[in-house]
Automatic annotation (TrEMBL):
The keyword Metal-binding applies. It comes from Ectopseudomonas guguanensis. GO terms for biological process: amino acid biosynthetic process; aromatic amino acid family biosynthetic process; chorismate biosynthetic process. Binds 1 Mg(2+) ion per subunit. SUPFAM superfamilies: P-loop containing nucleoside triphosphate hydrolases. Keywords: Amino-acid biosynthesis, Aromatic amino acid biosynthesis, ATP-binding, Cytoplasm, Kinase, Magnesium, Metal-binding, Nucleotide-binding, Transferase. This is Shikimate kinase. The lineage of its organism: Bacteria, Pseudomonadati, Pseudomonadota, Gammaproteobacteria, Pseudomonadales.
Amino acid sequence: MGAGKSTIGRLLAKELRLPFKDSDKEIEQRTGADIPWIFDVEGEQGFREREQAVIAELSQQDGLVLATGGGAVMRAENRQALHAGGRVVYLHTSVEQQIDRTSRDRNRPLLRTANPAQVLRDLMAMRDPLYREVADIVIETDERPPRMVVQEILSRLEALSPR
Ligand SMILES: Nc1ncnc2c1ncn2[C@@H]1O[C@H](COP(=O)(O)OP(=O)(O)O)[C@@H](O)[C@H]1O
Ligand SMILES: O=C(O)C1=C[C@@H](OP(=O)(O)O)[C@@H](O)[C@H](O)C1
Ligand SMILES: [Mg+2]
């Protein structure tokens, strides 16, 4: 959360002249409800089922940039679908930057707690090894504006040998 997946995914898609999809936005469009509302009504489990279905579908489509939510990596099915579907970029961000970048909006239900910094630290400890497992490329986003991150992704993608 706050790594810049939604922001950078959109910019990257523009550079690559490809369509952009964001699994959170896709879930919101399909349900007509926002993410916090889905968490309230269906619980995190319900949200995760919807997320898995969207990722399974979109990761099979050719020629698009897909941003997932930060928790998608927790399910092995999602990791497999993403790995099989294309190149995976992990936008690495320090917890300090995550705190800063997520402090302004309230649309992340997991951070609507008394101590969001502790939640982000705990999630990072659990998730970082999984992001690294699934990623073809790891990009550092701290102290780098989105446009610079996009340029680095483009050059790192070019340097990858074809699968
Ligand atoms: N590299 C960056 N440097 C500074 N701010 C950023 C960067 N990437 C994203 N942001 C800002 O952080 C906030 C969260 O970004 P977002 O794209 O929603 O992250 P994610 O989808 O990974 O949760 C947004 O306000 C965005 O403008
Ligand atoms: O990390 C997570 O578990 C989540 C991240 C969110 O997306 P972003 O990573 O785009 O903020 C969104 O999918 C949901 O609030 C859960
Ligand atoms: Mg996002």
